[in-house]
Amino acid sequence: MHDEIDVEQMTYLAVSEPLAHLPWAVKGNMDEKTVARIRRAGERLGTHPEGRKVLAAARLTALVAATDAEYDPHRHIVRVVLGEDY
Fold it and tell me: Residue 80: pLDDT above 70?
């Protein structure tokens, strides 16, 4: 059994700007109507009991649409740390 961490006992060493999380993507050549349907389905998960179960199983509270540009800070970190471009 794992003991829970008491976050009140933690100290911040550094704080960064918020970063987009969990990139769930669609293929670039996918039909726009299909992309829109997938996006709506993800965004609506929290509005239905079965969808909330899916989110809870993934330890999430919601899925929110993001743009590719929101992942540029991740790309910058990878470029600086690993010297790789994505």
Answer: yes
- Give the tokens for residue 37: 């349907």
Q: Where in the sequence is the domain holding 78, given as residue range(s)?
A: 28-86
Judge whether residue 1 has pLDDT over 70: no
Query: Per residue in 34-61, pLDDT tens?
Result: 999 999 999 999 999 999 999 999 999 9
Residue whose entry in the numeric block shows the structure tokens 């050549």: 29
Q: How many domains does the chain have?
A: 1
The verdict on residue 46 lying in a domain is: yes
75: exposed, middle or buried (Cβ count in 10 Å: 0-12, 13-18, 19+)? middle
Residues whose CB is less than 8 angstroms from the CB of residue 43 and which lie 6 or more positions away in sequence, other chains included: 62, 63, 64, 65
- Identify whether 7 is part of a domain: no
pLDDT value at residue 7:
85
5 within some domain? no
